[in-house]
Structures are given as structure tokens and as C-alpha cells.
Amino acid sequence: MPDIAPRRWLYLFLVLASTVAAVTQMAGVFQVDGFTLRETVILALFAVLFAWITSSFWLAVFGAYARFAKINLLPLKPPGEPSAARTAILMPVYNEDVARVFSGVRAVWESVGADFDFYILSDSTNPANWVAEELEWQRLRSDMASSSEAVGQETSGQDAHIYYRHRARNTGRKAGNIQDFCENWGQLYDYMVILDADSLMTGKTLTQLVGLMDANPRTALIQAPAQLVGRSSLFARIQQFSSSVYGPIHTAGLAFLQGADGNYWGHNAIIRVHAFMQHCGLPRLPGRPPFGGEIMSHDFIEAAFLRRAGWDVWMAPDIGGSFEEPPPTLMDYLIRDRRWCQGNLQHLRIVFAQGLTLPSRLHLAMGIMSYAASPLWLLLLIVSAIDMMSFNGAPSVRYIGLHPSLPLLVSHAAELVVLVLATLVLLYGPKFLAVVALLESPEATRAHGGTGAVLQGALWESVFSTLMAPIVMLQHSWYVISILMGMATGWNPQTRTDRALPLGLVARKFAVHSLIGMAATVILWRWAHDSFNWFVPLLAGLWLAIPLVLISSSPLLGLVMRKDRLFLVPSESRGLKVLDRAHALAGNHEELSGETQQLVLEDGRVRDLHLALLAGAPAPSGDSTRLGVLRAQAARRETAGFSRDDWSLLLSDAEGLRAL
Amino acid sequence: MSLASELHRTIHYFAALSRLITNVGRATIRVYQMDSQSRAFEVPFVSSLDAGTPLRCPRPMAAQPIVAWTPVRILGALFAALVLTPVQLAPAVITRRRA
Questions:
Q1: Distance from the Cα of residue A617 to its chain's centroid
Q2: Is the dihedral of CA A412, A416, A421, A426 positive or negative?
Q3: Would you call A184 and B57 a contact, using CB atoms and an 8 Å cutoff?
């Protein structure tokens, strides 16, 4: 195994050297007439933020080097004989689109065969989802049993072990869901693979991961980076393109530097169950949310705990066959970020925990910084704007005795231009390197639509991400401020389907961004006219916030661009068997009409199924008087006034349902 | 002299062999500690078509400690490193009586 310490030292040196050079340049500009308080603040913020973008830049450079030099980024023993290990594939779901979940499970099962057991671990609180999941589970099992020969594998659908479990109380959210699996069935398995409701993995990749775990007993977790695929809105297709083109050098850089000190991204990873059970029980942090309570972003912490216990955590950037779907719109992307932001900021309480390895602390710190950077950028812009507005032209003439001391007007345009150019290189250099790395492979270039399509895609993606950046900056800044003020977020399911957002909704959500952009424009135009042009790229994103979100949410525009081969990715140009199969199954899916939970009362077979699945679940812990009333009303089929909680209570009551 | 003490002495006359045995032993123990439990998990697998899951095989997961470094704890650790560790490393005092 290669010694990665020299790489890390070189990386640290380059980041520090670049930052020191830039800060020195900036300080040179400020020091001519002495530092003011504002300039000191600007310099401090600039140092932190420049170090942040420099670290991303050098990460990409290292990744590009690893790609060009064809370095083995997963120096583990290769898989040996066919594995005898037991592996469970877990799909935790929470009020998700039922058709999507079960289509995904079936597509993965058809790809991998009967060597793996599947667990659909439901935390759904919506009673309609709960019952629909049960019915879908039964349908999936019967479909697979009856169409075993259609699969085209040696194994038949009758061999399928696809299990379903619903938790009435979703303690610990997703981490608690996984923990519940481990505590009840973990001992049956050597490994578990965690999938998300919108993620897919191919059988080849899953088998390879199991082989790697078998051959490397010190390894507790291997993360297979997921490529974004499968959506058709313009926004999602741009994300897919950037993931496909820029992702490889980013993950290569990470793998090159982190070695066995890898991280866990919550899904599309294989985990050694007994290591996880022994070391990854998550504590409840003292205090109230957002900083106390349950740990929201559990994945980083679990990886840190495994490293603390001496286990290896790897990332396999070249393994392929690992996919997930991006959020369909910028609005959905930002809604997801609210939860992630709270989870990452909560890590402020863990980053200094005793016993963690330094790389684990860096993973946590970088996660925090990915959100904390936004308010820092905003602050830098505000202080810089104030500084520009308060510039009074040439300093007044002073006298030494009777002789005037003439001010020395020195132009700093050259230094500032160098700094701006350096910043642009740091921001866009990684994209350039990624495009060069992609174009080096003729096959990959063809899969992305050819050289012209790649260059055009990268250009338009850069324009879009530049316009999107100030919107995201404002939104993240608000998230950080609201979290620091103690406002916690709930646990809402993600919207995962393509849809064109209505104008009214977008206008309501993004009017604030546009108004802030307009106000900033007026202020800067009036009081910092000479410096106004510096702010135009930032202001443009805010002016265009509403049309940008609206237009980019369009699936139609996404399809038009796809026909023009713009933002084309391999899963679109060549097809992707597991994804196409999941989409075909979801497309042919027969929707259950009406309120599905009613079927438990009206259809004896549905009730029997529900009762069978309730076996072993704890009795409902709600109000017994209320339960008695609900039972009586259900017996008379007077359920029109039932709330979601009423239904959940009733559906958890095996005794009452049996009496019906 | 018993056979056991004879054997012990013989092995330690060959320092390289002794180191080899020690290292192999440590490596074996490490591998055993890292991977043995997964084998112990191979319990009979019972599933019922009527239920959604196999029979439960409960084993709780203990919550892991998260103790943050605070200035007081850092000072305490520093004290431990500066004072207690050298004390532990100091050669043991061997009294004549014991010798």
C-alpha cells in the first residue's frame, strides 16, 4: 500500500503557499495608507475563503494527476473466490414515491440475483404510503415468483428474499432506521449495502464490493461514489452533466489523498455489519435541536467512529455501477440543503471529539465549511461594498511644518487584477482540468456527445453555475443564520419527480432574492458607482433568480437540450440497463387509487396482509381512550374525519384490526 | 527442570524466531479480532412468508461516546502526558529484598 503522507504534506503546502501568496498580495494593496478596521476584516475573510477555494482547486489538480498518471486509487487486495458472505441490501424509505421505491428494488434485484437479501425499511408516517408499501411489497413478491423465467438469470424469483418492515415510531430518523435493522437482523449478515430511495447499483458492482470486503478484513466500509443520472429537467441534466464530467477528478483527488481515511456519504456503500454494530451506535447530543438531539448527518460520524476504532474506510472512485438521481429543480435542491446544512453545522459539536483521527476531523470541518462559506462570502461582499462606498478619493494634503506632504497615489490595479485572475483560475480551473481529462478518452467523449458537445456543455454549465451561485449563497446564509438562531428543521420527504414549477410558487419563494438583488444594485449604483461593474456577475444571478429557477425546472427544455446533445451523459447516450429497467417498471406501474389505508378496513385480504406484517411490532403507545373511539368509528366505517395520526394509531393496533 | 521451562528457554535463545512467533501471533490475533465475529453470526436463518421479515435476532447497539475536547480537558491531557507518562516509563524500582 503506498505511503500517502508525502501527498498530504505536499497538498497542505500548496494550499498554504497559495493562500499566503494571495493574502500577501492583498495586504500589499491595503498597507500603503495603513490598515483600517474594515480592511483588516476584509483581509481575514479573504484569507479564510481563499484557503477554502484553494483547497478545492488543489484537490482537483491532485485528482487530475491521479487520472493522467493512472494511479490505482483503491489499493486493496482484489476479490478472490466467489463469496460465501451474507449481504443485505437496505433501502430506508420515508413517505417516498412507492412506485419508484419498488421499481428500484426490483431493478437492482434483477441485476444482482438472489445472492443478496433486500430489506425495505419503512419509516413512512403517511398511512396511505404505509399501506401502499405493503401492497407493493406483496405484489413484487408474487410478480417475481410468477415471472421467474422472464428475468433471464439462473436464479428464479422464488429465491428472492425481499423483506419489508415498518417502524411505527421513527426514532433517530434514517440512522435510527438502520440501527433498528442492525439490532434485529444485523447478526444474520456479514455486510450491508445502504441504498437511498432514489439510488441504484448494478449487480456487478455489488458483487465486486462484497469480494473486496472478503479479501480485505480490515476494511469496514467502501463508498462507491454515486453518479447522478435519470432525471430530465434542465436543472437536473446540468447537475448530471457536471457530476459526470467534473465528478471523476474530484473523487479521484479525494481518494488519492484520503486513502484508508475515507468518508461515508450515507448511501451506495457497503459496510461490515459487526464493525458497524460495535462502533457506530450514535448517541443523542445533549440539548435541543438544531445543535442538540439526534445526530442528523450521521454518515460522516459513522465513518469517523469506524476510523476511531481502527477500521479502514475506503472510497472506490473507479468502481462504477453506482447511481442516484439529482433533485429535479433548484428549489428542491435548496430544500434538501436546509436539512444537510443543519446536519453539517451540528458537527461543530463533534469535530473536536476525543479520539477521532485528523482526517475524520477534516472531513467534518469541510462539511461545516461547505455551508459556513456562504455567510462568510456574503459578509466579505458587504464589508467590501461598504469600504468602496466610503472611499473619498485622494487623501487630503498634510503638512510637515510649513511644507506640504504630498500624497503618493499608487495604482493597485495590477495587483487586484492578478488576484481576480487567480480567483477565476481557482474557481474554473478544476472544470477545465476535468474537461481535459474527459477529452483524453475518445470513448468517454463520444458518450458525452463528442468534443463540441462537451465544450459547449461545460461553457453553459459554467454560466449557469455562476448565475446560481449568488442565489445559493443567499439561501445558505439564511440557513446558517436561522440555525444559529435556534430554528430547527423537520424531516420532510424529498420531491424526486420531474415537474415544471408554477410561476406563482417560484415567485413567492425567490422574490426575496430578486428584491435583495435590486436593492443592492441601487445602493451600489448610487454610492459605489466606480466599483459597480465588479458586482455585476453577482447581481445578475439575483436579478434573474425567478426566471432562472422557473426555466431550469422545465423537463421539456431538458428534453429539447438532450435532442441537441447538450449536457449529454453516458446513461442518456448509451443507456443504462438498471436505470432503464427501473424507469420502465415505474412507468408501467398501476397506481392505487384513493386513500389506500381505507383498504385495510374494506378488504379482508389487505387487512390480513397488514396484520401479518404487524407481527412482532410493539403495541401502539398512544391514548387508549382515543384508540377505543377510533376502533368504534372504524367498525362503523366512519373514518372521514380521521387525521393522519388517527390512522397511524389505528393501523398500529393489531388487536383492534383483528376484531374488525 | 520441567519441559515447559526448558522449551521457553530454548525459544528465547533464538531471538529472531521469538520475534517471528510474536509477530505472527499478534497478526493472527488482530485478524481474529477484526473478522471473527462475522462468522459467529451464521445462525440458522428462518423466514416466514407471512411475515415481512426473518425472525428477529436482537442484539443492541451501544451508543458511542462523544466527548469534546475543552480547554480543561486539554490541560488535563497535557498534564497526563507530561507527568504521568514519564512516571510510567521510568524504570521500576527493584528492592534488594525482592531481588
A1: 32
A2: positive
A3: yes
Nearest neighbour of A187 by CB, restricted to B43, B53, B67: B43
Phi, psi of A24 (to 5 degrees): -60, -45
User: Is B66 in contact with A163 (Cβ distance < 8 A)?
Assistant: no
**CA A109, CA A117: separation in Å to the nearest integer?**
9
Q: Are A277 and A182 in contact (CB under 8 A)?
A: yes
User: Rounded CA gap, A544 and A558, in Å?
Assistant: 19
CA atoms within 13 A on the CB side of A161: 17
Q: Is the dihedral of CA A631, A633, A636, A638 positive or negative?
A: negative
Q: What pTM did the predictor assign?
A: 0.86
Does any CB of chain A come closer than 8 Å to the CB of residue B56?
Answer: yes
DSSP type of residue A261: B
pLDDT digits (tens, 9 = 90+) for A451-468: 999 999 999 999 999 999
Exposure string of B62-93, with b = 16+ CB inside 10 Å and e = fewer, is: eebebeeeeeeeeeeeeeeeeeeeeeeeeeee
Q: What is the pLDDT of residues A384-402, one digit of tens each?
A: 888 888 765 555 556 666 6
Task: Work out the angle at residue A164's Cα, subtended by the Cα atoms of residues A617 and A649, and round it to the nearest 5 degrees.
Answer: 40
Angle between helix A413-439 and A5-30 (nearest 10): 150
Name the residue facing A186 among B31, B59, B69 (closest C-beta): B59
Quickly count: other Cβ atoms within 10 Å of residue A259's Cβ: 22
- Specify the pLDDT at position B43: 41
CB atoms within 10 A of CB A609: 20
Contacts A279 to B, Cβ<8 Å: 64
Contacts of A350 in chain B (CB under 8 A): 66, 68
Region at A479 (left for phi over 0; alpha for psi -120 to 50; beta for the rest): alpha
What letter does residue A195 receive in the DSSP assignment?
A: -
How far does B90 lie from chain A, in Å, by closest CA?
Answer: 26
Q: What residues of A are in contact with residue B69 (Cβ under 8 Å)? A: 352-354
Question: How is residue B46 written as a grid cell?
Answer: 428462518
- Using the predicted structure, report yes or no on whether residue B4 has a pLDDT greater than 70: no
Q: Is the separation of the CB atoms in A651 and A600 below 8 Å?
A: yes
What is d(CA A620, CA A627) in angstroms, rounded to the nearest whole number?
Answer: 9
Answer yes or no: do B61 and A185 touch at CB < 8 A: no
Chain A / chain B CB contacts < 8 angstroms: 100
Q: Are A328 and A499 in contact (CB under 8 A)?
A: yes
Q: A86, A185, A276, A605: best mutation site toward chain B, by most B Cβ within 10 Å?
A: A185
H or E segment and range at residue A221: strand A219-223
Range in A318-327, A359-368, A610-619, B54-63 with the lowest mean pLDDT: A610-619
Best mutation target, A184, A221, A302, to test chain B (most B CBs within 10 A): A184
Q: Does A68 lie at the interface with B, CB-CB under 8 angstroms?
A: no
- The total number of residues shown for chain A amounts to 660
Instruction: Please state, in angstroms and rounded to a whole number, the distance separating the CA atoms of residues A620 and A618.
Output: 6
Q: How does residue A634 score in pLDDT terms, banded at 50, 70 and 90?
A: confident
Give the contacts of A346 (CB within 8 A, at least 6 positions apart).
Answer: A285, A290, A291, A295, A296, A297
Residues of chain B found within 8 Å of residue A349, distances taken between Cβ atoms: 66, 68
Residue A139, chain B, CB below 8 Å: the answer is: no
Chain A partners of B45 at a C-beta cutoff of 8 Å?
188
Is residue A181's pLDDT more than 90? yes
Q: How far is B13 from chain A (nearest CA, A)?
A: 34
A615 contacts B51? CB cut-off 8 A: yes
A92 phi/psi in degrees, rounded to 5:
-75, 135
- What residues form DSSP beta bridges with A322? A201
pLDDT value of position A407: 52
